[in-house]
Amino acid sequence: MRLTRAGGPEPPLAELRDAVEEGVERWLAASGDVRLEDVHRWALLPSGKLLRPLLLLTSTGVVGGRYEQVLPVAVGVELAHVASLVHDDIIDNDDLRRGRASVRHRFGTAHAILGADSLFFALFQQLGECRRRGVPNRAVVEVMELLARAGREAASGVVLEMALSGRPATPTAADGNDGQAPGRGDGQVAGADDGQAAGGDGDGQVAAYVEMVRLKSASLLRAACHAGAVLGGATRAQAEVLSQYGQALGIAFQIRDDLLPYRHGPRQTDKPPESDLRNQRPALPLLLAHRMGTPADRTLLAALADEYDGAAEGEAGEERARHERVRRLVEETGALQEAHRMAQEHVDACHRALAALPSGRDRDLLASLAEQLAAEGDAGSDMGSSPAARTGVRAKTPLS
């Protein structure tokens, strides 16, 4: 499929998504690796959100670059992202990914590791194809360096996540928190201009969570935006602005993902609602509930975690009742409202960054991706009336 040049009638996200999917199929057909072909196909197809390659393409377009020149590395970024998911499932010993068997579970750990490693290296092979399509050598070398840095940051983020896993320490009066819930009742925390409350160790846990998300979740989104800008011929200032946008989007995206199990109505995630508490992962709603709650609230959270630890797979009704107790606690402490506020702060930062870029379809598409996060993070939102829905994004959005 031929893509149009930025500055003309640029394609909407649906067309860009189709181009990336076709590029993945072409890569699979041309890879020639018969020993790992089944592993790669299982990991890559059907495709996921494709958020990172879409960010790279639109970041190229917004600075006046050509989609067709950078499409190979957009595909490569998706290959690397999927490789990171395969590694995540190995680390977490997960059997499911996107509602079916994970690569680790279907093919075994050894094949999963080797298949993922191959996908990581394919990213740099795809970058070389951009050079053959006319991207200057200087830009290719710069992007190679920043993508490698993003990979190292993501690994550091996973290590930090493992260090943070487990039950948060309980704040005490000695920490400057008398056990009362700061801001209880309206969900706001006095002095919390950056999403953190005054209150001892709880502050450190939330700050560590944000740093973990910046490294693990936001690094590749930031790098995709930065890479697209550099490959598209951006100025240093434009590349920095798009890097800031990508980081803010990545943090907002992870907070939104943490919030999904606590929404009313049909679930919008494959992750079981009790997963974070059962596995004692550093999820923002639980960290905030622990920090903002009373001693009784924290005792209840610990009791629910114990209950999950000792419970076998129960009746559906028991599981729902358990989750409702957690959801109600997270809501009543004001943690949900505070988490939404933190996510919205990062969405607002996305829009501030975009304001410094040339207006046009690509900037509108980047703004629409941020707006989808804001809309989907609101349990009462109507996606049909969101700005994203009015910019030609098809029903199956990149963030769905």
Averaged pLDDT, please? Answer: 82
Strand order of the largest sheet: 1-2
Radius of gyration: 22 Å
Gross geometry? globular
What is the CATH architecture term?
A: Orthogonal Bundle
What gap, in angstroms, lies between the N and C termini?
A: 24 Å
CATH topology: Farnesyl Diphosphate Synthase
Strand and helix order: HHHHEEHHHHHHHHHHHH
For the record, the CATH class is Mainly Alpha
Low-confidence stretches: 172-200, 379-400
Main beta sheet strand tally, sense and closure: 2 strands, antiparallel
Return the structural class.
Answer: mainly alpha
Q: How many β strands by DSSP? A: 2
Number of helices: 16
Folded structure, characterized:
The structure is a single chain. The chain has helices at 13-30, 37-44, 51-62, 67-92, 103-107, 109-132, 137-164, 201-216, 218-231, 236-259, 275-279, 284-292, 295-310, 316-332, 335-354, 361-376, and strands at residues 96-97, 100-101. The chain has one domain: Orthogonal Bundle (Farnesyl Diphosphate Synthase), CATH 1.10.600. It has 16 helices and 2 strands. Strand 1 (96-97) and strand 2 form a beta hairpin. Helix 3 (51-62) packs antiparallel against helix 4 (67-92). It starts with 12 loop residues before the first helix and ends in a 24-residue tail after the last helix. The protein is globular. It has a two-stranded antiparallel sheet. By secondary structure, the protein is an all-alpha fold.
